[in-house]
Design a protein that fits this description.
It is a single chain. The chain has 350 residues and is an alpha+beta fold. The chain has helices at 7-17, 21-28, 69-78, 104-126, 143-156, 188-193, 270-278, 295-307, 338-349, and strands at 2-3, 33-37, 42-49, 55-62, 83-86, 92-94, 133-134, 140-141, 163-165, 179-186, 199-206, 209-217, 223-227, 231-234, 237-238, 246-248, 263-265, 284-286, 311-313, 333-335. A 7-stranded mixed β-sheet has the order 9-10-11-12-13-14-15, sandwiched between helices. A 6-stranded mixed β-sheet has the order 1-2-3-4-5-6, with helices on both faces. A 5-stranded mixed β-sheet has the order 17-16-18-20-19, with helices on both faces. α4 runs antiparallel to α5 and α7 packs parallel to α8 (295-307).
């Protein structure tokens, strides 16, 4: 079974489940729901919190021929859930982790989803504790930042690779060693103001390339995941770039509208910005007209972008390479195609 992503999928799922399409239509757009559909089976799942404070994927409704446990467990794993519960029978399946000898990208994807779930709780519990202050660059550092970092690092530690984060000094990384980079709470200013989006972002990087990434918009539940050899998904359905005239840009006092763009959007959350390029909601992103962006802000989104078929180029037009350094600012263009990226570089530079 696959995650339903179209009107045709919706009608097929409704027929198999024996309900009106209108009963399922809102679920197709809800990040907290999934419709799975196959040739002769369908299932409707929702993510929910248990009384013990864990998350589970609940099978709300299923056709009688659902035998594909792997699909149910995959949805639960990507949601960061520990269990799958059948609402009709009460039966519970544990979500197993990947095998110890599974590829590092698979083990990272599983634990990153669990980390995002832990961060959801941590930032909510730390909200409005009064331990907020402005950093030297004018941005906010709040109690939720530290809580998010601690929660994420604890989950990712079993991978045994260095973890870089906005909230801590960088550990040393050998030249041939993979590393993880986190922005446990991207869009801190948005979070503090209660203005969506704010997000969890994590990437696995090797040889300067983000090979796997996860970005979760914690304000809405939207999820983007992907990597170089794994494609990209938005809320479990395949995602891909597309050319467009909307450019997303980092927040700032001045935002230029390049000649190649009809409109510019500013969300205040860079990780989500890059995912909007990856899923085709926007045509491009850039920070060429400002001082730059940190690696922890962009690595997760860049992994998703690569999986979706997009490109990231430096101001000089070369491929972007990431270094294990959360202090240095980097400048680049992210776009649906190399042609689009080069056109944007020329437009911003003119």
């Amino acid at each position: 079974m696959r995650v339903a992503a179209s009107g045709a999928d919706l009608h097929a799922a409704a027929r198999l489940l024996g309900v009106a399409p209108a009963a399922l239509a809102p679920e197709l757009l809800d990040p907290g729901a999934r419709l799975l559909v196959g040739d002769d089976a369908a299932a409707h799942l929702r993510r929910r919190w248990t009384d013990e404070g864990t998350t589970e994927a609940v099978v709300v409704h299923r056709s009688t021929h659902v035998t594909d446990r792997a699909a149910l467990l995959a949805v639960a794993s990507a949601w960061g859930c520990a269990t799958v519960r059948d609402a009709g029978t009460g039966r519970v399946l544990e979500v197993p982790p990947p095998a110890a000898d599974a590829p590092l990208t698979e083990r990272f994807a599983h634990l990153a989803a669990l980390a995002a779930t832990r961060v959801e709780v941590a930032v909510a519990l730390a909200r409005d504790t009064g331990r907020d202050h402005r950093k030297d660059d004018g941005s906010w550092s709040i109690a939720a930042d530290d809580a998010a970092h601690d929660a994420a690092v604890e989950v990712l530690r079993p991978l045994g690779v260095p973890v870089l984060s906005e909230e801590r000094p960088d550990p040393s990384v050998r030249g041939d060693q993979p590393w993880i980079v986190l922005d446990p709470l991207d869009g801190t200013g948005n979070f503090r103001a209660g203005l969506p989006p704010w997000a969890f972002s994590a990437a696995l990087v090797h040889d300067g390339e983000p090979v796997a990434g996860l970005v979760v918009d914690l304000s809405s539940g939207r999820r983007w995941a992907g990597g170089r050899d794994a494609g990209a998904q938005r809320d479990g359905a395949p995602a891909s770039v597309r050319e467009g005239s909307t450019v997303v840009a980092p927040s700032g006092r001045v935002v230029r509208v390049p000649a190649t763009a009809w409109r510019v959007r500013v969300t205040g959350c860079t990780a989500v910005d890059l995912c909007l390029v990856a899923d085709g909601s926007a045509g491009a992103w850039h920070d060429l007209d400002r001082s730059g962006t940190h690696v922890h802000d962009v690595a997760g989104g860049l992994a998703v972008l690569a999986g979706a078929g997009g490109v990231a180029l430096t101001p000089e037009g070369g491929p972007l390479r990431l270094a294990p350094d959360t202090e240095t600012l980097i400048r680049f263009v992210a776009a649906a195609s190399e042609t689009g990226a080069r056109d944007l570089i020329a437009a911003v530079g003119s």
